[in-house]
Amino acid sequence: MFRSATSQDIDNLYDLLIDDPRFAAEPARSTLRKNLNSMRKKGRRLDQDVAAQLLVWEKDGKLAGCLINSAIARNAGNEIWQIALLPEFRGQGEGSRMHNALLAHLHPRVDIFARCNPQAQVALQMFLRRGFLPLDSTDAGVQILKLPKMGAPVTGQLQARQDLEAFVEVPV
Q1: Which of 92, 119, 125, 130 is in the most buried spot, having the most CB atoms within 10 Å?
Q2: pTM for the whole thing?
Q3: Which CATH number applies to 2-147: 3.30.559.10, 3.40.190.10, 3.40.630.30, 1.10.3720.10?
Q4: Which of 72, 69, 49 is nearest to 164 (CA)?
Q5: Which tens digits make up the pLDDT trace of 11-29?
């Protein structure tokens, strides 16, 4: 079950996310905690100044992981910017349950985008199994993916230029 992150969650979420390659270089590494707090308090990512939700995934009342639902451009588009599980919850289907809960709300309504670093092969496979389409990859090998909203025509989904809908929050 998702809930909004609290100030008591920030240290645990920081520890969970800091090993992601997106935070390996400065200034992202040193500003991660500030960015998490901005998402928690203001619903904004500082690094891109876009709307974002910092969501905690719980299992049996314990923090099991997190997800950041982020706009792509100012109040437009939905991207799974981060998805992570604590090590003790991995390999038990908990990541799939978290992912499915997110898609149950967003997928029928909006296109969902995701980016996967080359090291995130488990996440990439999880996205592909759920029907995400590969759109592009960056020079650094980051895969850009899209899951079209329910009922969207297949033609035109893989265009280089994507039309973005208004950002949609996940209810908590």
Answers
A1: 130
A2: 0.91
A3: 3.40.630.30
A4: 72
A5: 999 999 998 878 878 888 8
Q: Which residues have CB under 8 Å from 146's CB, separation 6+?
A: 111, 112, 113, 114, 132, 133, 135, 157, 162
Omega within 30 of 0 (cis) for the link into 134: no
Where do we find the tokens 């029907």? Answer: 131
29 contact partners, CB below 8 Å, separation of at least 6: 18, 23
Query: Can you state the percent helix, strand and coil of the chain, rounding each to 5?
Result: 30, 30, 40
> Given this model, what pLDDT does residue 17 score?
93
Let me know how long the chain is.
172
**Can you spell out the DSSP letters for 19-74?**
TSGGGSSTTHHHHHHHHHHHHHHHSEETTTTEEEEEEEEEETTEEEEEEEEE-SBT
